[in-house]
Amino acid sequence: MSADAKRSYGSTIALLVLGILALYASGRWLMLLVPAALAVCYLARPAFRRSGHGPGIR
User: Fold this and answer.
1) pLDDT exceeding 70 applies to what percent of the chain?
2) What does pTM read for this prediction?
3) Under a CB-based contact definition with an 8 Å cutoff, are residues 7 and 49 in contact?
4) What is the three-state SS of the chain?
């Protein structure tokens, strides 16, 4: 498995965990979870583009 694939899988799992936490967390935690999810998306974007995953890539 390539490093890009591992990075995209890791960021996907991180986003899933943050999403589950957001479902069960109170409103105060959302102020922390939303920026964390945005940071994960921003940092994972290059890995998704190189690995062929993500919107608009076929």
Assistant:
1) 66
2) 0.66
3) no
4) CCHHHHHHHHHHHHHHHHHHHHHHCCHHHHHHHHHHHHHHHHHHHHHHHHHCCCCCCC
- The whole-angstrom separation of Cα 9 and Cα 16 is 11
Tokens of 17: 């965990």
Segment 3-57, tens digit of pLDDT: 666 667 888 898 899 999 999 988 888 889 999 988 888 887 765 555 555 555 4
- What token pair was written down for 12? 């996907």
Amino acid at 43: L
* pLDDT attached to residue 40: 87
- Give the pLDDT score at 58: 45
Q: Which of 14, 9, 13 is nearest to 39 (CA)?
A: 14
